[in-house]
């Protein structure tokens, strides 16, 4: 009887399960695994993960939107100091900080698994990093993705260092890196000096926001290996500017001193259209009445966009409310204590992650 249940009915039953029980159900058979994976990514809201910018033997903190509680997860299984880069399915892409040359790793903070990715073909320092998901978790527990690395500094043949004008890609399906082409040197310089690690993938293009004032957006078309540059609205007046992917579309958030924070969406002809403003009262609460946006960070994915600063400050959330057919603003209190234990505040990197309690075969391949 269970094997013949319609997919939607089975998904409805699974929606009542705890994350632990849902992980067990995924291991029963291929049909249950597909249904439970679909439910985990589509029906359950993503958790906000707060990781320290640099850590070794510390903790990360996770906010579960279903019960509106913060949880503390130990990172003592991570053998080296790391800096979080990006979510990859139910995993986290990490950048070890014990070496100037880039090497990447992945981990699952819920199953306490960790693994280094293979070394790059070209030794680079401080390149831009982009992530593209290829598929959802399949019936064998394998999640496929690609990591793009562009620019950075490398050793020059004549000695010293020079900007590296190449793009290299890691494919999890074959667990190898490959140099796929060159790039304009001026783009390599800007990606190395002015671009943070955060990237956004949308409609076949990886985008990075340059941190130099005035802000601009750099895009890499994956299918053609071509680069392009986009302007940013009010680029010379914004105190912060960040890119997110919202329901498949490239979305830009920015705020100016003493003014509003606005949200734009990229449309046809690479034109930005303003679609929303942060409500004034919530904006003032988020800024502590100071009216300064310059330390604001942002993360977003399908159905949710979050503005944050540090662990103890609150999170400003713009979220899709499906039963109302619109997006609404919410407030999440910062993580100041857990089970009565006061926590020290620190700078964080925020990620949106769907917890995966199943052991990853990718992490087991090490």
Automatic annotation (TrEMBL):
Q: List each copy of the F-box associated beta-propeller type domain by range.
A: 81-266
Is Signal given among the entry's keywords? yes
Name the InterPro entries for this protein.
F-box-assoc_dom_typ3 (IPR013187), F-box-assoc_interact_dom (IPR017451), F-box-like_dom_sf (IPR036047), F-box_dom (IPR001810), Kelch-typ_b-propeller (IPR015915), SCF_F-box_component (IPR050796)
Output the PANTHER family linked to this UniProt entry. BNACNNG10540D PROTEIN (PTHR31672), F-BOX DOMAIN-CONTAINING PROTEIN (PTHR31672:SF2)
For whether the record's keyword set contains Lipid biosynthesis, the answer is: no
Q: Where are the transmembrane segments?
A: none
Question: Which UniProt keywords are given for this protein, alphabetically ordered?
Answer: Signal
Which residues, by range, are in coiled-coil regions?
Answer: none
What single Pfam family name could you report for this chain, choosing any that match?
A: FBA_3
Q: Which domain of life is it from?
A: Eukaryota
Name the UniProt record assigns to this protein: F-box domain-containing protein
> Which SUPFAM superfamilies does this one have?
F-box domain, Kelch motif
CDD domains linked: F-box_SF
Q: Which residues form the signal peptide?
A: 1-23
What region holds the F-box domain? 2-38
Source organism per UniProt: Cinchona calisaya
Query: Taxonomic classification, please?
Result: Eukaryota, Viridiplantae, Streptophyta, Embryophyta, Tracheophyta
């Amino acid at each position: 009887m269970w094997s013949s249940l319609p997919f939607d009915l089975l998904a409805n039953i699974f929606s009542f399960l705890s994350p632990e029980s849902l992980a067990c159900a995924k291991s029963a058979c291929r049909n249950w695994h597909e249904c439970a994976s679909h439910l985990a990514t589509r029906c359950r809201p993503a958790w906000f993960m707060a990781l320290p910018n640099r850590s070794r033997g510390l903790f990360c903190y996770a906010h579960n939107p279903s019960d509106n509680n913060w949880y503390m997860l130990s990172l003592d299984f991570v053998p080296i100091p790391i800096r979080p880069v990006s979510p990859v399915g139910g995993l986290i892409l990490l950048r070890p900080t014990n070496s100037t040359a880039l090497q990447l790793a992945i981990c699952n903070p819920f199953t306490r698994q960790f693994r280094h990715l293979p070394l790059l073909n070209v030794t680079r320092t401080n390149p831009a990093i982009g992530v593209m998901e290829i598929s959802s978790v399949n019936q064998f527990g394998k999640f496929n993705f690609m990591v793009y690395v562009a620019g950075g500094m490398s050793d020059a043949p004549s000695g010293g260092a020079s900007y590296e004008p190449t793009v290299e890609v890691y494919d999890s399906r074959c667990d190898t890196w490959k140099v796929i082409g060159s790039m304009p040197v001026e783009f390599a310089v800007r990606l190395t000096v002015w671009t943070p690690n955060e990237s956004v993938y949308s409609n076949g293009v990886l985008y990075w926001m340059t941190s130099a004032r005035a802000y601009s957006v750099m895009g890499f078309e994956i299918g053609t290996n071509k680069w392009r540059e986009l302007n940013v609205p009010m680029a010379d007046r914004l105190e912060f500017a960040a890119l997110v992917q919202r329901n498949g579309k490239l979305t830009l958030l920015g705020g100016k001193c003493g003014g509003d924070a606005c949200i734009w969406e990229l449309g046809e002809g690479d034109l930005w259209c303003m679609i929303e403003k942060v409500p004034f009262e919530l904006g003032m609460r988020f800024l502590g009445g100071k009216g300064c946006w310059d330390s604001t960070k942002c993360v977003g994915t399908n159905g949710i966009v979050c503005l944050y600063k540090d662990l103890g400050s609150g999170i400003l959330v713009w979220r899709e409310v499906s039963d109302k057919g619109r997006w609404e603003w919410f407030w999440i209190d910062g993580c100041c204590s857990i089970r009565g234990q006061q926590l020290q505040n620190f700078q964080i990197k925020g990620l949106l992650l769907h917890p995966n309690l199943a052991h990853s075969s990718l992490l087991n391949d090490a």
